[in-house]
Amino acid sequence: MVRQVIETLEQNGFTKVAFSRLGDPAVIALWFGEGDTVTPAFIREAAKAALDDGQTFYTHTRGLQSLRDAIKRYLDNLYGLDINPDRITVPGSAMMGVTIAAQTAVTSGDRALIVSPHWPNIEITYRVAGAEIDTVRQRETDAGWRLDVSEIIAGVRPDTRSIFVNTPCNPTGWVMQQDDQAELLAFCRERDILLIADEVYHRTFFDGEHAPSFLQVAREDDPLVVVNGFSKAWAMTGWRLGWVVTPPHLAIAWTALSECFNTGATVFAQAGGIAALEGGEETVATLREQYRKGRSIVEQHLTGHPLIDLRMPEGAFYAFPKVNGVEDSLAFVQGVLAEEDVGLAPGYAFGPNNDAHIRLCYAQSHERLEEGLRRLVRYIERHANALDHAPATPPSA
Q1: Which strand (E) or helix (H) includes residue 139?
Q2: Residues of the chain whose pLDDT is less than 50?
Q3: Using CB atoms within 10 A of its CB, is residue 16 exposed (0-12), middle (13-18) or buried (19+)?
Q4: Which pTM value belongs to this model?
Q5: How far apart are CA 214 and CA 1, in angstroms?
Q6: Closest CA to 350 of 100, 141, 145, 108
């Protein structure tokens, strides 16, 4: 007999839209979290060399030691740390890391608190583990998307066993600051709540080389799992390769669960990961500047439009504008796809109170991005009479 939580799972809003036109060259695809830049050649060559060397066998379920060592060096250099290598695991994709972390924290009858808007798979992961879900939503303010630590803590219940924070955030671009991270982590330490911090956009930050990380304020034994990966910073989305940093006493648990879920990450992909970490800083910088320009293009096309309410992102590579008058974001993006061949993600998929929003990824080449935005604005203006001309709800302070 299939558990009810599994039997009642629904297809997420992304694939409801995208699967009907996936791979169609006529579509300007702004729906998924990737650009159109191929993984750099030096990374691909490293993986091919591993294949040619016959690296096609099982390996350590927590990842090649050489890759885990490279991750340690990368994190140590980036954040000025000396991370215990026993804390690092490469289970497969970053999403695999989130899934395993959730399994370690919650079971039937527990609650999980998600900072929202959020990637829909996070909620599904917690629900499949048996937890009930609460969310605390970022606020739309004149200064952008904001959330106080006190608001997160206020959302915690007696049976909350895990909190999930994605910073920089997909889809809003909100970035949690270092003092706030320290305060939230201290609360989780006191309450023995597992904090899962998704930091996969750590290098896609527009006010420095990297966004603030929980690793910079954490004790080694804190109830913290930091999830990261190669997809975004090195244009490696299809490689499904990520890592986690956990308390060292969980090393055996992560060994067992990594074997259970995935038997370890693909061995020759790990060779590409080592190359990315050891020689990829120029790639990281180039991609960040591409995304910065894409962000500017979004601002130019959408800011100031009477039917569009846009809060500029501080990090990641998404915009999450509100289209005034839209009440069904799925129908709206389906209409844009049908009439303008532009693929967008519906806001409802990102949690409660987001159905007037759409998400677009600005990691695409600038020419395609500009054309996609022109088509989006054209669609909105063509349907303006069906939309509410009243100004958007005034933002909070």
Answers
A1: strand 139-141
A2: 390-397
A3: middle
A4: 0.95
A5: 41
A6: 145
